[in-house]
Amino acid sequence: MGAKNCPETPRQKMINMMYIVLTAMLALNVAAEVLEAFKVVDISLLETFRTVDMKNAQIYAQFEQAYAENETRVGEWKGKADLVREKTDNLIAFITATKEEMVKRTGGTPVSEEDPLTTDDFYFVTPTEDTLKIPKADDLNIPSEFMITQKRATELKERIAGFRDTLTSLVDESDVDLRATINSALDTSNPRVDLKEGGESKSWETERFLDKPLVAVLALLSKIQIDVKNSEANVINYLFSQIDAGSFLFNKLGARVIPNSSVVLQGDEYVAEVFLAAEDTTQQPEIFINNRPASVHDGKATYRVKTSEPGIFSWSGLIKYKTPAGVIKNYPFKQEYQVTQPSVTMSATRMNVFYRGLNNPFDVGGGGIPKENLQITMTNGTVSKQGDSFIIQPDELDEMGNRTKVSVYANIGGEKRLLGTTNWRVKKVPDPVAQVAGQSGGNIRKERLMIEDGVLAVLEDFDFNFKYTVTQFRLEISGPGGYVNVWESNSNRFTSDQKEQFRRLNPNSLIYIANIKAVGDDGTTRDLDPITFKIQ
After folding, report:
1. Does the pLDDT of residue 152 top 60, yes or no?
2. Class of domain 430-535 (CATH, top level)
3. CATH for 345-427?
4. How would you write 251-284 as a 3-class SS string?
5. What is the percent of the chain with per-residue pLDDT over 70, rounded to a whole number?
6. Helices 152-169 and 176-185: crossing angle, nearest 10°?
7. CATH number of the domain at 253-340, out of 2.60.40.10, 2.60.40.1930, 3.40.640.10, 2.120.10.30?
8. Residue 262, exposed/middle/buried by CB under 10 A (0-12, 13-18, 19+)?
9. Would the CA dihedral through 500, 504, 506, 508 be positive or negative?
10. What is the pLDDT of residue 44?
11. pLDDT the model gives residue 196
12. Res 158: pLDDT
């Protein structure tokens, strides 16, 4: 019966409209597991940022000490280091202000007694130490509007480029490796066009900030801040090394503290060496740790303390050294270390399961432990490193997740420690659906059918670069008297005979495509459900 003889009722139209709205809402929804993973990543990035910042502060303190000893020799390099610190602080402050503005625009409000912070809340701490609760971590619109439409990302890109140019200008052209490291860490060039993704051209700004949830944008900005801090560290260490070695040994005497690790698991021992950088073999310095004299051997003292609870702890001391002129000089020092409970967070970065036959991206956070100190092993598969992430390749299907275990180890103080083990399910890649002209059945115009080349196998809502190719199908068309005529194709394309039958079709004719087989990129063959079309 034709559509005009069976019109839709108002109720059916309303149901259809609600379905369309629901589908759109589902497409825009961001999985809670993904949001939680971004929260964990952002927290880990901020902890890394604080660690790098603390180390950079130590280098600047060394510049101050060297300058106090010999202004003439150190003045040039200290001036350049001060410029690096100023430019770094300005860029970090701009990124922090960008975060705060986005949080406020998405409804972030200060924590109060009436609205306290809970363990499940995502929050942002402002430079003035105000804590803002983030109610809409999955907001997609405001970050894109603020960063792209209002060109905040463009301004950020320009500031990063200016900062990069300042740093490279302070490094001698002969130091090719350092200049390349800075340019790579602070790269703002547009990404290459990926032909597999349709050849779409993207800018640096849109690739990072367009249509990303707020929590992802905050994490990305934190990552940029770490890149800025690491670049600062590389340059100030380089500038410090340019001070004349001979003069440095005499005039830049300073306390040095080398811990075995700045992050210690609860129950482990924190160990650090304290020594004077310029050692005189004819005399030993006096070293005091926490106001107590320490035993000195070969110019070094060792500080040990057993950890019993998590937190950030500080300790300090003083090194006394007699100069060749007989003057006693004091070199104070202060150091912090962090004790954390053993913990680990693991997440598949695309879906909450692994798929056999695919490279499954996998991310892991070790509660403040640098990623380069983490190692992943698994049963029922292999793990490989790819940049800062990992790739999981399962061996066998494990629908219940009983045989697939992922374990994370940390290298702490030269010792391999197990942080955690979790079970994962391994599923097969889902079956595709057959489509012609982007449809899996229903009404189709004869003119549209005539210009189509064949049958496609489409994986709907699957977030991996995986394809199926139709290898055969059968076309069935009902003729006069109810007889069914059949035409076979041994590829994904319509044959000339099938095309000829399309030309003879009349309105309301039915065509049936069955016996559809498709081969995936992994070499497996799937039988697809048949599809039916009615000619308009």
Report:
1. yes
2. mainly beta
3. 2.60.40.1080
4. HCCCEEEEECCCEEECCCEEEEEEEECCCCCCCC
5. 81
6. 170
7. 2.60.40.1930
8. middle
9. negative
10. 77
11. 65
12. 94
